[in-house]
């Protein structure tokens, strides 16, 4: 395994921990202010400010021309991220962090297998094999086990 792959695995692992920690932190914010939708708004607002500051410091702010060439669906990432943050805030008090994250991963895998199968958004097509289906079934089993 080369350095780039190891670095990517490490970065995404840290991202996974961040997702697990973010859900209860945002849920606590929601309880404190009494509004899960506004808690998601605050979460995105703080993230926006941080990312804007980092982009500015790095000199990575695109021009208006750069933004115009982005495909229309490229703007949906924020909408999808907002849906994730709100769904986590809503569900973590009802399910707990483990079940929420397991269900999140199950949803990600179901979506991912479809995206891979059709080569969505310019990705290379990856066929649906029994190993991938078994992986999804095993995660579904994990969701069930986390609720016992």
Radius of gyration over alpha carbons? 18 Å
By oligomeric state, this entry counts as single chain
What is the end-to-end distance? Answer: 37 Å
Reading the helices and strands in chain order gives HHHHHH
Name the poorly predicted regions: none
Portion in helices: over 70%
Count of extended strands: 0
Q: Mean pLDDT score, rounded?
A: 92
Separate helix tally: 6
Give the overall shape, derived from the CA principal axes. globular
Class by alpha and beta content: mainly alpha
Strand content: under 5%
The main sheet comes to: none
Give a written overview of the molecule.
The chain has 148 residues and is mainly alpha-helical. The protein contains 6 helices and no strands. The protein has helices at 3-33, 36-58, 64-68, 76-95, 97-118, 130-146. The chain is globular. The model has no long low-confidence stretch (mean pLDDT 92).
